[in-house]
Specification:
This protein is of the alpha/beta class. It contains 8 helices and 12 strands. It folds into 2 domains: 131 residues, Rossmann fold (3-Layer(aba) Sandwich); 155 residues, Glycogen Phosphorylase B (Rossmann fold, 3-Layer(aba) Sandwich). A 6-stranded parallel β-sheet has the order 2-1-3-4-5-6, with helices on one face.
Length: 296
């Protein structure tokens, strides 16, 4: 029997971040012997022992569309939700504003990234002779305005000796600027990020993944709810915050400053340790245990 159903937003306008977070927790639940499934939001009534909702479009405490024993919300919108557990995975999140949830898991310790990132090799020598510096630009799977294209083009012009790679999302602008290598990927960027000297990213899940891997990272806000994330990682010294216009100059500065890259790498890993999904899964598993105990 499937104990946990994840309900998440996905597609044009929202990208893949919600699904990636759900996949991370589902992976950890599987290690605990708990079966789960992920379904898209707004597809009718969902009934399950435990329902985990990661959605901007639907509220996790709206019982008109979910029929659960327990409800968990993964939320970025600072909504005070009447659920069993609310997970606030942004590094800047605080518990004080959430009074209706029975349990609040907030902040960098609960940032949800792919657990497999911890197994990737990031020890290679980026200063090795004969190797071009690698810059990865990713503005999300739904970058329909082409912000990534603008940044990647400017980076290629500003840093002609660097290999600039642009992640082209399935619901975004599909064009590729001259001198830029396109990368199509919809199943996670871990391997690509692990090879980067500098990562330029929107301030969503990929930002947290880049920090987990200790990549020198430049964060660019592409949505209002990303500003708090950027403020938090900048305050921790874990990433630089730039605009789409200034990001290419920041890339050039980082490529020329190994000491700055080293500081960002160390502080990024210290802030996001990659075990947030494990911690959240442990709390969700307790709900499954509670239900089993009640059932007996």
């Amino acid at each position: 029997m499937t104990e946990v159903v994840f309900v998440c937003d996905e597609g044009a306008g929202v990208g893949l971040g919600h699904r990636r977070r759900c996949e991370a927790v589902a992976y950890e639940l599987a290690l605990l012997g708990i079966d789960s499934v992920i379904v898209p939001s707004m597809q009718g009534i969902v009934a399950a022992p435990v329902v985990v909702v990661d959605s901007y479009r639907a509220r996790a405490d709206d019982r008109r569309w979910i029929v659960p024993d327990h409800v968990v919300a993964i939320d970025d919108l600072d909504r005070d939700l009447a659920v069993d557990i609310v997970v606030l995975p942004a590094p800047a999140a605080i518990c004080a504003r959430h009074s209706k949830a029975k349990v609040v898991l907030a902040g960098a310790s609960y940032s949800l990234v792919d657990p497999m990132l911890r197994a990737l090799d990031v020890s290679q020598d980026f200063e090795a002779a004969g190797r071009s510096a690698r810059v990865v630009v990713t503005m999300g799977a739904a970058d329909h305005e082409g912000v990534g294209q603008i940044i990647a083009r400017r980076c290629a012009e500003r840093c002609p000796d660097a290999a600039v790679q642009l992640v082209v999302g399935p619901w975004g602008d599909q064009s590729t600027p001259p001198g830029v290598q396109p990368v199509w990927c919809d199943v996670g960027l871990g391997d690509l990020l692990a090879q980067a000297d500098v990562v330029v990213t929107a301030a969503g899940v990929t930002l947290l993944e880049s920090l987990t891997l200790g990549r020198p990272t430049i964060a660019v806000a592409t949505a209002a709810n990303q500003v708090a994330n950027i403020d938090a990682v900048r305050a921790a010294g874990a990433a630089w915050a730039e605009s789409a216009v200034s990001a290419c100059d920041a890339v050039a500065a980082l490529l020329a400053d190994p000491a700055a890259r080293s500081r960002l790498s160390q502080r990024g890993r210290a802030l996001i340790d990659g075990r947030g999904a494990q911690r959240v899964a442990a709390s969700v598993a307790k709900l499954c245990t509670t239900r089993s105990a009640v059932g007996t």
